[in-house]
Amino acid sequence: MVSARADAQPNRIRGGDSTDRQRKAAPARVGRPADSGDRAGRVVTKGGELRATGSSDSTICFVGLGTFGLPIALHCMNAGFEVVTLDTGHDRAGRKALADAGAGVLSPASPECEAMVLCLPDARAAQDVVERYRDRLPALIVDLSSHSPGAARRLHALCARAGSTYIDAPVSGSVQDAAQGGLTQFIGADRGADVLADAIMETVADKRFYFGRVGHGQGVKLVNQLVHISNVAVLGEGLRLARCLGLPASGVLEALAHASADSAMLRRFGDRLVGPDTSAAAFRTALAAKDMRNVAAEYRAAKGADLPIQSIVREALESAEAAGSARENFTRLIEFLPGTAARP
């Protein structure tokens, strides 16, 4: 994901016939009934879920058109939303991809939108945007970035002072999931509390979990990252044992995929751990290390101690960073686990 520069200028991206759309009243705010007659339309029940009707008339300002931000913005355009982006100077490839998809690009003096969606690499980037645009923030901020519960609460306070509602709603999944609209989302709000937010998040992810309180979305994402990244570390150590025992790594992976050791991480990353991982860096070492530092900071603040497995994994990631692998796949961490001189 791409960070935003503080002096960014906005770009408006229009899809389809969105130039003819008429602006309506502001969207429902968190705390108001979801069916309170706002611009996003009434809420209906479909398949046991709350869904907003008429919400695609809304204008959304996207900040961050990186690995996940770009496909999410495209999904929102395809759903009929009018999308506005901030020209950060780092999103040229993303803007070109949107233009290649048939989007027009304009540069108004300031964005007019009902909601802003942040898809940034860390809390500092998100805070920079909120502080820079605090005098013209829209009524709703949906933060898809991954950082921490504490950062989410600070961003919530900043947005509240600007008169805006902030929802932490980080996503999880692969690049392919993002392209296919198959992401999972952890949301620090109640379902139905904000109709426009629900409509946006319904477009962002097909699996959404609501946790009610600001910061809880980021909290669940941290738990996910700890389990996800540590799982890969354990898998790497398992392959190290297999080689020590003279077992063929590929055969072991195939057997484990049909046994109790099977996991999503084994199926997704197992082959990459057998030999040099030359695939494109979808999840960089630097981002994984950032996540583990956030886990450490939150746990230390609450308990005054470190989680033992997290500490080992974090140190391996930081060693990989120091060795020049910050922009490579996080799977490099297995080369830097204690007692490891090379790949298992």
TrEMBL record:
<feature type="active site">
    <location>
        <position position="221"/>
    </location>
</feature>
<keyword id="KW-0560">Oxidoreductase</keyword>
<dbReference type="InterPro" id="IPR036291">
    <property type="entry name" value="NAD(P)-bd_dom_sf"/>
</dbReference>
<dbReference type="InterPro" id="IPR008927">
    <property type="entry name" value="6-PGluconate_DH-like_C_sf"/>
</dbReference>
<dbReference type="Pfam" id="PF03446">
    <property type="entry name" value="NAD_binding_2"/>
</dbReference>
<feature type="domain" description="6-phosphogluconate dehydrogenase NADP-binding">
    <location>
        <begin position="59"/>
        <end position="212"/>
    </location>
</feature>
<feature type="compositionally biased region" description="Basic and acidic residues">
    <location>
        <begin position="14"/>
        <end position="23"/>
    </location>
</feature>
<comment type="similarity">
    <text>Belongs to the HIBADH-related family.</text>
</comment>
<dbReference type="InterPro" id="IPR029154">
    <property type="entry name" value="HIBADH-like_NADP-bd"/>
</dbReference>
<dbReference type="InterPro" id="IPR015815">
    <property type="entry name" value="HIBADH-related"/>
</dbReference>
<feature type="domain" description="3-hydroxyisobutyrate dehydrogenase-like NAD-binding">
    <location>
        <begin position="215"/>
        <end position="336"/>
    </location>
</feature>
<dbReference type="InterPro" id="IPR006115">
    <property type="entry name" value="6PGDH_NADP-bd"/>
</dbReference>
<protein>
    <submittedName>
        <fullName>NAD(P)-dependent oxidoreductase</fullName>
    </submittedName>
</protein>
<dbReference type="Pfam" id="PF14833">
    <property type="entry name" value="NAD_binding_11"/>
</dbReference>
<dbReference type="InterPro" id="IPR013328">
    <property type="entry name" value="6PGD_dom2"/>
</dbReference>
<feature type="region of interest" description="Disordered">
    <location>
        <begin position="1"/>
        <end position="41"/>
    </location>
</feature>
<dbReference type="GO" id="GO:0050661">
    <property type="term" value="F:NADP binding"/>
</dbReference>
<dbReference type="GO" id="GO:0016491">
    <property type="term" value="F:oxidoreductase activity"/>
</dbReference>
<keyword id="KW-0520">NAD</keyword>
<dbReference type="GO" id="GO:0051287">
    <property type="term" value="F:NAD binding"/>
</dbReference>
